[in-house]
Amino acid sequence: MKKFGTQSVILVSIGIMLGMSEFIMVGIINDLAGDFHVAISSVGFLVTLFAIVYAIITPVLSVAVGSHRLYRVMLLLLGIFTLANLMTAVAPNFAILSISRILTAMVSGITVSIAITYAAVIAPMEKRAWLVSWVFSGFSIASVFGVPIGTWVSEKIGWRLDFWLIVGLTIVLMILFAFSLPTELRQGESKGLKSQLAMFKDKRIILGILLPTLNLGGVYVAYTYLRPIVTEGLKFQVAFVTPFLFVYGFASLASNQVSGRLANRDGLKTIEKVYVLQAVALIALPLLFNLPWVALLSLIVLGFTMYLQNSPVQLFYLAVAEKDYPQSVVLASSLNSIFSNLGIAVGSATGSVMLTSLGLKSLGVGGMLYTVAALVALIILNRVRKQVK
Q1: For the chain, what is the HEC assignment?
Q2: Which of 126, 243, 304, 365 is the 20 to 30 A CA-CA neighbour of 148?
Q3: 275-297 b/e with 16+ CB inside 10 Å = b?
Q4: Has residue 328 got a pLDDT over 80?
Q5: What is the per-residue pLDDT for 128?
Q6: Who contacts 350 (Cβ-Cβ below 8 Å, separation ≥6)?
Q7: pLDDT-based confidence at residue 2 (cuts at 50, 70, 90)
């Protein structure tokens, strides 16, 4: 049991490091813009770029892994992840910074997929769902603790130290992983990309993948620029950003936990109400700029709703795949992650354009439009599900 506990901590910590490296950009966006003498929207585009690369490369690498030993693959991926963050820490210009973010994104998706595979194998049956959910929650933990702390470090010492810390902690995790996790774990031979992609002909899957894309798209129109919204739009002091990010992070962590409970019922039906609440929070945001404390409540509601769909949507994908596309179960398990990142790319890109052309107040309206589109897609999906039954 002690060994299982150590292995669990290592796998969850890998999730935290991956989440920290991805989400820290939100907290240091102003510092990066100032250091590299570029517009905030240009730094925001790095969030878009990261998510696009993540979404495109993850399924390709998932198939490429084949029957190779996952132990070796994981150590290689963690090594590349470390080097990519080292490149970020020492980046002399914005071009090198961009390349380092692309490299980080390329390995992040497949790394968390392998971590989840390990979690499912090492855990006793009664703890399997618990451990897998905690590996996913590593990203929320990074949001709750890592991003606010990283933002504070960036303000007080410099943003480069954040990435040096990620490099150092990842090296420690590599060493612990090498001495603690099974070395002979493999997945079965891939049946090929074409066979796995067959499920994308299914109307339910097509509608289903729109949900994380549009939901996270709506949230990230505003969330990417959370710091300038709080400081420039709502006129709070820069020092207020760190504690607020803690509160926002706790709201998103609660979102993940409640999501699991929703999945035990007909979660997709309940999510219709969630999308309505999220749309209201987004459209209210620009109307509340003169009431900053109320606007903060709107942002917290946004943080709470952003992950509520995760477990219901993930279980839906798996249910369809297990019944009708058993050759695609592995790919189905990564759909939520892949299309959430596509949504992040779409949302952050939209936010960048709207911020540049229309200003901060436009971000809530832009996000609301994506959320309403997600609601329409979900209503249609729920009707299709009834017909299939």
Answers
A1: CHHHHHHHHHHHHHHHHHHHHHHHHHHHHHHHHHHHCCCHHHHHHHHHHHHHHHHHHHHHHHHHCCCCCHHHHHHHHHHHHHHHHHHHHHCCCHHHHHHHHHHHHHHHHHHHHHHHHHHHHHCCHHHHHHHHHHHHHHHHHHHHHHHHHHHHHHHHCCHHHHHHHHHHHHHHHHHHHHHHCCCCCCCCCCCCHHHHHHHHHCHHHHHHHHHHHHHHHHHHHHHCCHHHHHHHHCCCCHHHHHHHHHHHHHHHHHHHHHHHHHHCCCHHHHHHHHHHHHHHHHHHHHHCCCCHHHHHHHHHHHHHHCCCCHHHHHHHHHHHHHHHCHHHHHHHCCHHHHHHHHHHHHHHHHHHHHHHHHCCCHHHHHHHHHHHHHHHHHHHHHHHHHHHC
A2: 365
A3: beebbebbbbbbebbeeeeebbe
A4: no
A5: 64
A6: 217, 221, 366, 370
A7: low
Query: What confidence score (pLDDT) does residue 1 get?
Result: 55
Answer whether residue 136 shows pLDDT above 80: no
CA-based radius of gyration for the chain: 20
Checking phi first, is residue 192 left (phi over 0); if not, alpha (psi -120 to 50) or beta?
left
pTM of the entire predicted model: 0.75
- If one compares 308 and 66, the residue with the highest pLDDT of the two is 308
Q: Phi and psi (nearest 5°) for 24? A: -60, -25
Contacts of residue 334, Cβ cutoff 8 Å, sequence gap at least 6: 58, 59, 62, 109, 113
Buried b (16+ CB within 10 A) or exposed e, 106-137: bbbbbbbbbbbbbbeebbeeeeeeebbbbbbb
pLDDT of residue 329 exceeding 70, the answer is no
The confidence score (pLDDT) of residue 66 equals 64
Distance linking the first and last C-alpha atoms of the chain = 43
CB 325 within 8 A of CB 53: no
